[in-house]
Design goal:
Length: 360
């Protein structure tokens, strides 16, 4: 039976990346009933909204989507489509595998980690008070009366909430991923030695969740130490679960360790829906040039296939992508030793090479 999947081309280089990814997904032989829907600046220009209701309804109906990047204008215009999506669908778990494929230039060829980032709380909850605002002043006074805490005058204040509910479900999601994908260990990262009541709570909850998953090893690391160890002994790490802010930063560290943004896939998973997309943005300066690397979105497609329990197809597609990269001939400019290499192929030809590899 065909899988009903919402497919969102996005804007900038999104449509070309999505088209290349759609073709390789179809070439696995898995049947899809695509429901194409708009999001981003192109539909904003036509309809005055970057995220029409019909797009949201489609994702809710299908429960699964794959999305090209969407531009967020700086300073004016509309809010990030991705933030809207995560909020509307409560996509609380961001899963970002970072695997260094053979043939990619990296100082960390042993890297094969999966970052599981909490998506809804922490300093990103958006509870902020502007310097010198009446609210910031009230809060400063309140805290001083409450327990003598002295916040300096003219401070901007951001609140860092971390809940039992939020921590429990993100750590569960990390263990679920580990069990479903044959991973041996989950590491929880935190700064519980300093932030005892937020990160400390995260750690305490993580330990409790770990007890319910005795077949997967569990350990914890202080976030600064984790960063140090990731770049000195990456092979010792497997699945890493983190609160929102640390997860954001370590995701980019991971993308750098595996050879760049063009290679870093992602999935945002919630209880009602899952949305798969690359870590990178819309790279607008390359729009319409058939130039950028579709690997990150294709690997997001691999994650989607696994989510749909199409494991054999997922392994086959991942293997074909890895093989094209290993051979290093029909790859995009960013995977060539020299970025001006005239033998680099375009987005679409990279997809052709992956499809050819799968047919062998
Ligand atoms: P970007 O990721 O779009 O591009 C940064 C640079 O990385 C590019 O100039 C390019 O050199 C390189 N790059 C990115 N993707 C690549 C690929 N597939 N192949 C080869 N090289 C690639 O980041 P940016 O310029 O900061 O953001 C552009 C827009 O994208 C912004 O509006 C931003 O808000 C948005 N954005 C969207 C998403 C999303 O939709 N998920 C994520 C991040 C940023």
């Amino acid at each position: 039976m065909a899988h009903n999947v919402t497919i969102i081309p996005g804007d900038g280089t999104g449509p070309e990346l999505v088209e290349a990814t759609r073709r390789v997904l179809e070439a696995t032989g898995v049947q899809f009933d695509w429901d194409e829907q708009p999001a981003g600046e192109d539909v904003y220009a036509e309809e005055g909204t970057p995220f029409p209701d019909r797009t949201l309804e489609s994702i809710k109906r299908n429960g699964v989507g794959i999305k090209g990047p969407t531009t967020t204008p700086v300073g004016s215009g509309f809010r990030s489509v991705n933030v809207l999506l995560r909020k509307e669908l409560d996509l609380y778990s961001c899963i970002r595998p970072c695997k260094a494929y053979e043939g990619v230039r990296t100082r960390f060829p042993e890297t094969d980690i999966v970052i599981v980032r909490e998506n809804t709380e922490d300093l990103y909850a958006g509870i902020e008070f502007e310097k010198d605002s009446a609210q910031a002043e009230d809060l400063r006074r309140f805290l001083e009366e409450l327990d003598g805490s002295a916040i300096r005058a003219h401070s901007g204040i951001s609140i860092k909430p971390i809940s039992v509910f939020g921590s429990e479900r993100i750590v569960e999601s990390a263990f679920d991923y580990a069990e479903a994908n044959g991973r041996r260990k989950v590491t929880a990262a935190h700064k519980a030695n300093i932030m005892k009541f937020s990160d400390g709570l995260f750690l305490e909850v993580a330990r409790g969740v770990a007890e319910r998953h005795p077949d997967v090893e569990f350990e914890d690391r202080i976030i600064d130490n984790l960063c140090n160890q990731l770049v000195s002994r990456p092979e010792e790490y497997d699945v890493i679960v983190l609160p929102n802010l640390y997860g954001d930063i370590v995701s980019d560290l991971g993308a750098g360790m595996i050879g760049g943004l063009g290679l870093a896939p992602g999935g945002n998973i919630g209880t009602e829906a899952a949305m798969f997309e690359a870590t990178h943005g819309s790279a607008p300066k390359y729009k319409g040039q058939n130039k950028v690397n579709p690997t990150a979105l294709m690997l997001s497609g691999v994650l989607m296939l696994r989510h749909l329990d199409e494991r054999e197809a997922a392994d086959r597609l991942e293997g074909a992508i890895a093989e094209v990269i290993r051979k290093g001939e029909k790859v995009t400019y960013d995977l060539k030793p020299n970025r001006d290499d005239p033998t680099a192929v375009g987005t679409s030809e990279f997809a052709d090479a992956v499809i050819e590899e799968m047919s062998q």
